[in-house]
From TrEMBL:
UniProt keyword annotation of RNA-binding present: no
Record key words, sorted: Cell membrane, Ion transport, Membrane, Transmembrane, Transmembrane helix, Transport
Source organism (scientific name): Rothia dentocariosa
Residue intervals passing through the bilayer: 39-59, 71-93, 99-123, 153-175, 214-237, 249-272, 322-350, 371-395, 429-452
One cellular-component annotation, GO: plasma membrane
Localization, UniProt: Cell membrane
Example of a GO MF term: monoatomic cation transmembrane transporter activity
Protein's name according to its UniProt entry: Potassium transporter Trk
Bilayer topology: Multi-pass membrane protein
Lineage: Bacteria, Bacillati, Actinomycetota, Actinomycetes, Micrococcales
An example Gene Ontology biological process: metal ion transport
Length: 469
């Protein structure tokens, strides 16, 4: 009996080095056994860190600790680069708090795992096979040997674009009457927030006061547009800027679909709101076109707005919902189901209508596995949006249109808001936080990470075609 007690004590002794080995092995086998689970764990830990940081008295303007649900929601929104807020960024958070929000946006935009890999490269460490596999999945890299060079390109591209946008915006804010430190801070803030598609603003009324200023709206729009293309696309364009024939299929699909959505979104949004006196109806023709272009870019993930979302027409709200749900490019700072997902599904529909045996585009055949993933992502995303909308409808007395708008914005990490986030109880805030988290890490990543094991069958059932339609 005495021997058994000593054995139990030795087994669970917290000061025994073997106990820490067991804990490390447990974490390796349960959390870090796959890149997907590592992504989920890393993003969650980053959110926890910034939640604690924003809960500190120094992060608040008043010097009083912010309520936990506000700190948690803001941290989640920043790390997932969404931009939804329950409190005013300028009124609630101090300079320290805003710096923490901006840092969270930068880490969330690049990806917590990518940031870790970049830090490892910066201090001269060699990346292990597991780290390369993680970064490969994060950035959708084709060959494993390219991971190191791709990560460096990601860092240089991000810093280069953000620095350029900051250098353009800072003089403009100076000309508008702000002092040098304030102008520099606002230039840096908008540069990082826009390129990472975060949608946070240091002004209490956002970009609304600059709604007619081309020299503020243009740099912000360009940064959002570039961030939404995705790093693999930006890399391909940088390497072969004048040889579009040599671009990868992902780049061709992303650029083509993004261009179509950009033009179509601006056209439809402008037509719908052209005569609306509550939004742009009283503007001149040039200002209406500028607002329509800006809205078309922002509705697919940017999150900045120039008009009150409660004042837009119902048809405009529908257009915005669709664009938010689609989002930007794969492996980008944007959210949504991604433009390549929609492109693959539309190409499959066209192929089926034509009676083609294969889905073809740009001289390439798209494999069936890619089509299955595209359908899975779309259907899973639709299901998550429906469930989230139903839960919030059960919690509140808000109309369906208003709740659906906020849920899509949260899941697609867009950040446009009709003000519902500020009116929800803490339970509703946590629901939106969960939607932002799932939307950022991706439905496929979430499904893969939560699955205990992959199922492989050693046999095959006979085929039988069901009646469809």
């Amino acid at each position: 009996m005495m021997y058994e007690q000593e054995e139990v004590t030795r087994r669970f002794n917290p000061f025994d080095i073997r106990s820490y080995d067991k804990l490390r092995n447990f974490i390796d086998t349960t959390v870090f056994s796959s890149p997907s689970r590592t992504a989920i764990a890393s993003f969650f830990l980053v959110i926890v860190f910034f939640t604690v940081t924003l809960s500190l008295p120094i992060s608040s303007v008043t010097g009083e600790p912010a309520p936990f649900h506000h700190a948690f929601f803001t941290a989640t929104s920043a790390v997932t680069v969404t931009g939804l807020t329950t409190v005013s960024t300028a009124a609630q958070w101090s300079v320290f708090g805003q710096v923490m929000i901006l840092l969270a946006c930068q880490i969330g935009g690049l990806g917590a795992l990518t940031m870790t890999s970049l830090l490892a490269l910066a201090i001269g460490r060699k990346m292990g096979l597991r780290s390369k596999l993680i970064a490969q999945e994060e950035l959708s890299i084709g060959r494993l040997g390219e991971v190191g060079s791709v990560l460096r390109t990601v860092a240089y591209t991000s810093i280069g674009i953000e620095s350029t946008i900051a250098l353009v915006l800072t003089p403009r804010f100076l000309l508008l009457g702000e002092n040098l430190p304030t102008s520099l801070w606002h230039g840096i803030f908008y540069a990082i927030s826009s390129f990472n598609n975060a949608g946070f603003t240091p002004h209490s009324d956002g970009l609304v006061p600059y709604g007619h200023d081309f020299f503020v709206l243009a740099p912000v729009s360009i940064a959002v547009f570039l961030g939404a293309l995705g790093f693999p696309v930006l890399m391909t364009i940088q390497q072969k800027p004048f040889r579009p024939r040599d671009w990868t299929l992902t780049t061709k699909l992303t650029v083509t679909t993004t261009s179509i959505l950009f033009v179509l979104g601006a056209l439809l949004w402008g037509i719908a709101e052209w005569a609306n006196p509550r939004t742009i109806g009283n503007y001149g023709a040039g200002e209406k076109i500028l607002s329509s272009i800006f809205a078309s870019i922002m509705t697919r993930s940017g999150g900045f707005n120039l008009v009150d979302m409660n004042d837009i027409r119902p048809v405009t709200g529908l257009i915005t919902d669709v664009l938010m749900f689609i989002g930007g490019g794969s492996a980008s700072t944007a959210g949504g189901v991604k433009v390549t997902t929609i492109a693959v599904i539309m190409l499959a529909i066209i192929a089926e209508a034509r009676g083609d045996q294969f889905v073809m585009t740009f001289g390439r055949a798209i494999p069936v596995s890619a089509l299955r993933i595209a359908i899975s992502v779309t259907m899973m995303s639709t299901g998550i949006v429906l469930v989230g909308t139903g839960v919030l409808l059960a919690m509140t007395d808000q109309p369906l249109v208003r709740v659906l708008f906020e849920v899509i914005s949260a899941y697609a990490t867009c950040g446009l808001s009709n003000g519902l986030s500020t009116e929800l109880p803490p339970s509703g805030i946590y629901v939106l936080s969960l939607l932002m988290f799932i939307g950022r890490i991706g439905t496929i990543t979430a499904a893969t990470g939560l699955a205990l094991r992959s199922r492989r069958r050693l046999y095959k059932y006979p085929e039988e075609r069901p009646v469809i339609g």
